[in-house]
Fold:
Amino acid sequence: MTERTFPPRTPGRREAFWESLDEPQREALREASRPRVYPARTPLCYQGDESDHIIVIEDGWAKVTSMTEDGHAVVLAVRGPGDLICESAVLGDRQRSATVTALSPVRALVVPARRFTAFLDAHPEAWRLVSGTFVARLDDADRRLQAHVSAKGARRLALLLAQLAELSARHVPAAPDGGIEIAPPLSQEELGSWMDASRETVARALAHLRERGLVRTGWRRIVVVDVEGLRAFAQERESD
Structure:
């Protein structure tokens, strides 16, 4: 994996934690951390474990899942370059609320909880960025709930793909025709878990979105052709 160069800051765009730090803050956090590479499908932290460290993703993608009472893993979110994960360590003695698993090889900085809180004490302005991360996670949960209430099937998938396209555009250059490839390598089963639908429902929804010219698909590859078109489609009324 090559060194990650983050895109220029864009007004109004939510930045990942690492992007929001200045260079002295990044250097201080590097000194407090140890680098680690996680192969694809390797857990970075486990639901229920004690929170004794945080992780900053430098490169690669991971999924956040939570285990239900009947033993079913539900995809809650994806995290990518610059994101702070396993952040519950900041809150003190607390068990992890979810499992984070590498979707692709992940290069990361692992910071013990005590060193991270010492970093925050030495750089008080960074506390605001951590708080912003917590707020963003709550906002994401609210959007997930709203999508479940307001849409289903292809429309719910359209909302999810539009969000993933906007996230991916920060890290993957658009195709010559303006298409945006979804960067996190999510399977149809994982997309279905995220939107509370079966793999078959996702496959039918993707076929419908292809027919409307909104996406192109391949093996574990989805290219969003029209982000605004996806959002407009998601807002259409369900037919009787």
